[in-house]
Amino acid sequence: MLIGIEMMTTMCGTPGYVAPEILRNQKYDKSVDVWSAGVILYILLCGYPPFYEENNAALYRQIKSGAYDYPPAQWNSVSGEAKDLIDSMLVVDPAERLTDQGIMDHPWMQKEDLSERDIAHVLPFMKKFNVRRKFKAGVMAAMLAKAGFALKDGKQQ
Fold first, then answer.
1. Is 124 found in the same domain as 113?
2. Range of the domain at 106
């Protein structure tokens, strides 16, 4: 344990946002939140997540390897400093990952004026991603209901 830093071990997180160390069942600290914030920043700048697979095992492999990219169609208008911030947050090794103070001190956070950035192209991607997410949840619910796992008052019927 690092001095003054509590290491945690509970498996937690939403699949696409979870840090690699959690997936590896390693002890972790608050740097997992920096990873998740990096995922959120990526989504906010382009409208879809950096890690996405229909199959959780494939998604987890992608996350553990830190495999993501910046497709030019959505990312050409995003500054290099914004991408550098994301790259510094989505570092697989938590010891090398940017800290919360490092995020606040990053040049993009210091000078980027988002009020002048046209992000209208992001909305269709966010809508498409959200529709896909809701459709997947609906399919899973239908499959569970068909399999007899419908719950009523917390009890299986």
1. no
2. 1-117
